[in-house]
Each structure stands twice: as structure tokens, then as C-alpha cells.
Amino acid sequence: MPNVASHAPGSFCFVELASLDQNQAKTFYEPLLGWSHTDFPMGPDSFYTMFQRSGLDAAAAYTMREEERSQAPPHWNLYIAVENADDTAALAAELGGTVIAAPFDVPGQGRMAVIQDPTGAFFCIWQASNSIGIRVAGENGTLCWADLNTPDAEGAKTFYEGLFGWNLAYGENDPSGYLHIKNGEEFIGGIPPADQRDPSVPPMSAH
Fold first, then answer.
1. Pairwise CA distance, residues 124 & 133, whole Å
2. Dihedral sign for Cα atoms in the order 82, 109, 7, 46
3. Number of neighbouring beta carbons within 10 Å of residue 174
4. Domain residues of the chain, as ranges?
5. Which residue has the higher pLDDT, 177 or 123?
6. Given this model, what pLDDT does residue 73 score?
7. Half-sphere exposure of 175 (CA within 13 A, CB side)
8. What tens digit of pLDDT does each residue of 105-160 get?
């Protein structure tokens, strides 16, 4: 079982469920993916759930507040590791993205921001301090891949290559039109061709 000690900049480092019912989420995901959990109090009637796989952090969940519920349905938040959240957020804006939540500290854990790419999809960036994010990978029940569903693959390619230094390329001898995402020497995700996506679904990441 690979124990993850750090995440390279530009890699997917954490995944978090924005839910309507954390307890129901625990009931569903724990037997499905072999997770256990630890709840951390966040205030009156509020807590943050950290999911573990074999005792190591694998994902998390929280309950959406009313304001967030009015803006989006339940979803998974995908985090990308960066060396400096402030610099990355500023660059994202320069490249045509929108900084939804400016960089802020998560006390004792790290620094993050929420960004919307120019095609409409949302993601989070994470500058680690005490928490690197996911600490287990390469086995069942852990994050292994992420797709970006967008009607503008070429626009996304320009943005993400400029922001994270990713290499987005079509596979050789692959007529499918799937665009592969490579961070350094590691393939981490991709962008399906636009004709394979449901046009009624907004741009988003799928894990």
C-alpha cells in the first residue's frame, strides 16, 4: 500500500465531498470504498469528516451551507497541489480564470483558494503546511484519475498548461479525441471529446 509523503506541484492532492447529508455520505461510501472516518468539530452542529483507507487520509466531506446550496448541487471538490497559493491564484486570473475564493489559511493545515477556469469548471488549489492532503494512493478506494468535462478542450488546454505546466495531448493512434493530461512524467487525467458530454451538464471535473 503506497503511503504518500508529498504531492508534486500540479498533481491532484485531495478530493472533498460537498454534501447535503454527511452522515448519509458516510453510510454510503464507507462500505462501498472500504473507508473509515474521523469527524472533527467545526462549531455548533457542524463537523468535518475525514475519510481514511487503511488508516490513511483518502478523502473528506462536509455539509454545504445554505448559500452554497443555492449556487451548486452536491459535488466533489478537486484540489491541486501548488507551491504558492497566492502566486497561483494571481496567475489564474491573468490567464482568464476567476478567483472565486481568494487565498486563505486553513489554520494549521495549509493555504487554499477556489478558482473557476475560463470554460466554467471549478477547482481548488492547495499549498500544504501540516496537511499534504491524500496520504494513500495506488489501491482500491483511492483517487486515481480525474476528467474535465468541458465544451472547450482547447481553451482548457491553454489555461491549464499555462497555470500548472501540464502537457495536454491527444494519444498517438487514438482516434477517440480524448485529451490526456500529464503532470511531469505522470498521466493524471484527461478531457473527453465534447461530443461525448451531456450539453445540459455544466463544465466540471469528474473523479
1. 12
2. negative
3. 10
4. 12-206
5. 123
6. 87
7. 0
8. 999 899 999 999 999 999 999 999 999 999 999 899 999 999 999 989 999 999 99
Q: How far is CA 158 from CA 36, 87, 118, 162, in A?
A: 39, 18, 10, 6
CA atoms within 13 A on the CB side of 43: 2
- Show the cell assigned to 20: 447535503
The CATH number assigned to the domain with range 12-206 reads 3.10.180.10
Residues above pLDDT 90, as percent of the chain? 77
C-alpha cell at 207: 473523479
Amino acid at 150: T
The residue type at 143: L
Q: In angstroms, rounded to a whole number, what is the distance separating the alpha carbons of residues 194 and 203?
A: 11
Q: Are 68 and 62 in contact (CB under 8 A)?
A: no
Q: Which residues contact 158 (CB under 8 A, 6 or more apart)?
A: 95
Which set of grid coordinates corresponds to residue 181? 493530461
Q: CA 39 → CA 36, 102, 125, 141, distances in Å? A: 10, 26, 23, 19
